[in-house]
Design a protein that fits this description.
heterodimer, A: 6 helices, 3 strands, 37% helix, 8% strand, elongated, B: Cytochrome-c3 Hydrogenase, chain B, 4-stranded antiparallel sheet, 3-stranded antiparallel sheet, 16 helices, 13% strand
Chain lengths: 164, 379
Amino acid sequence: MAALTNHQKNGLGGVFLTRLEDLLEWGRSNSLWPLTFGLACCAIEMMSAQDSKYDLARFGSEVFRPSPRQADLMLVAGTVCKRMAPRIKTLYEQMPDPKYVIAMGACTINGGPYQKTYSVVQGVDKIIPVDVYVPGCPPTPEALIEGLMKLQQKIRQGRANANV
Amino acid sequence: MTEPYTIEPQPDSKDLLVLNMGPQHPSTHGVLRLILKIDGETVRDVQPVIGYLHRGFEKIAEGGRYPHFIIECNRADYVASYTYEVAYVRAVEELTGLQAPPRARYIRVICLELDRIQSHLVWLGTFGLDLGALNAFWYGFRERELILSLQQELTGVRMHPNYFRFGGVKADFPDGWIEKTRRVCDEVERKLDEYEDFLAQSDTFLMRTRGVGVLPKEMAIDWGVTGPNARASGLDFDLRRDEPYFAYSDMKFTVPVRTAGDCYARFEVRLEEMRQSIQIIRQALERLPQGPLILDGWEKGYQFLIAPKGEHYTRVEGPRGEIGVYLIGDGTTFPYRVKLRSPCFQNLSVLPELMRNTLIADLVAINGSFDIVMGCVDR
């Protein structure tokens, strides 16, 4: 209480009121650990987003985990083929909650250039829930970073699929 | 979904552990799945399982007019998209009897060589990652961004250019592009020496690559291995020199060949190839002829190209080997059949032979040194 009055007087040493949920979401949004998981062309741009020029690490996402059990963000980067779809679902189920999904590229949004192909799943949201869609074929690293920041915003506002 | 590929338990393999590696694995470079039979740390048998990225390119090609496949085929090998696109465009041109104007041929050579450098830089980065040399990834991708920004200025996108046309190319170099390319060439050439220094002088790197995954020359020929992987085994064959296309006959360059056939030889060959590519780009920029970019009337006319009846096979030297396009025309605006010959598929099929009776860590090094792109394998 003393701290509160002190803060009202001179702006120093105040208290910080928040909900536990907000604090957790703030923490989660700033330490997203993506799964090392490249499918096709977009994976090359995902690697470019990690590299020295774009440096995804600035946004707290540098720790790409090879195991789904240590990751909480799935970047679906590339064409989802029917043969790969069951594996993607398994990987998603193996990730611990709360977990988030970014669909990167036209193929994962609705099939993209392979809309009439017999072997391609027409959008990854047919098998797993998606938080953010990043369009492009392939999206530039800037677009991916924008998508990641949108996801952070969504997590902080409690609107991500894992929160609902 | 049923799984057609399983390893049946063999009577002699009672004590072997069957281990599944992939399709989601950081060192399989995409969606390659390897079923390993291991005895302790030693790999006794390997079975690659492919098809996780089959997108049906050959069927897509039949569904559209000739130009429609230009935008699709570059996605087959997404690390070297220019090369696939050029291979298809060249196949259609040769079937139809078109000959691109000289300036377009030189521009194509410059694009192909820039593409080769950036593809080898991706390889260098991922190969380094596989062996634990993270700096190769940071440095390799730093220089790759320089080349990608050149390509973006020229074609408008970083990957998948859609830039080549039947009978020429889409656009001329932007202002100042040639100067910028010369500067990038100098920069990359300087950096290549740096890469060689920090990798080839590292004991760890040498121990993990020297004498590992030796591919004999005869085996390379038998299995149809092409490109840098075959040249590292002593097969002196390069389509750019032996069957010159576009403007390659005007260029002076050497084809690097090593005889050791191990991972280190493949590393050396690729580094040397990047240096030669820089030489080719410099020569092409110097001798760049003036003139039209595309045949008269083909700026829009390429969209309704009618290829004659007949069949044709074209091959070009890609960063991973011989990229072939087998084309059948039936006298309409639609291709009857397009078959893509992928170098990665042939290179992948020899891998189990090399991986048998090696350590698991060596398996990762061998796989990394072969530069497999799964989009190219599965098509």
